[in-house]
Amino acid sequence: LPYSDLSIGFDYPEDRNNVSNYVRYPFWILYYFGFTEDKDEIKSKVDWFNSRKNSKDRFCSYVAFHDDDGLRKKMIDIIEKIGPVSCGGASYHNDDTLKTEYNDDKAKYISHFMLNICPENVSVKGYTTEKIFQSFASGCIPFYYGSEGQPETFVNKNSVLLYDKTNDDEIIEKVKLLKNNEKFYTDFINQPRLLENAVDEIYDMNHNLKNKYKEILLKKDF
Fold first, then answer.
1. Among the residues of the chain, which ranges form H helices?
2. Per residue in 41-70, pLDDT tens?
3. pTM above 0.90, yes or no
4. Selection from 160, 144, 159, 162 nearest residue 190 by Cα
5. Of 38, 92, 143, 188, whose CB count within 10 A is highest?
């Protein structure tokens, strides 16, 4: 940090000692929202996330390249107590349809499933990637691990199946209800995924990064 004009990362500023040349800017913002300061545009996309549905004609998906520490296999094993997990990626591959039917388009593939297993590589405060947002965008329920149990402050945790390595039985019972009780599923999927503060927080992250770029450029002698 002392040797750079600007550092960008997942950490919250307070966890970087609030240094002046650091900005928190997780990549999923550009992935889904773009670099905009228009609150109407941001709200429109938040509303889109909250309204996504799918046919749930398949049960559970998992798409990944690796499982270095075995955590993902544990999550697969939990879900397989209730129904099949379709593994379209290289990790635990058992389903060719990601390639043969959807041309390796992960979003289209997982949009046919009720659930999607989508853990982060590590569980660290602030480290939230696009994985959980991919599930939301495809209308499926994320079975998520990471971000110390809080994937962004504006993500409604009640709309997510959160795995914490100690709650296997709780997850199993909830997934059984989602699979077998249509009212429970409907109530669950109709919850907002992103809360009202999402618009302001996404706006602030875009605004702060833009202002930091301006500040740096104004100091430069070109």
1. 28-32, 39-51, 71-79, 97-100, 106-110, 131-137, 168-180, 182-189, 198-219
2. 999 999 999 999 988 999 999 999 999 999
3. yes
4. 159
5. 143
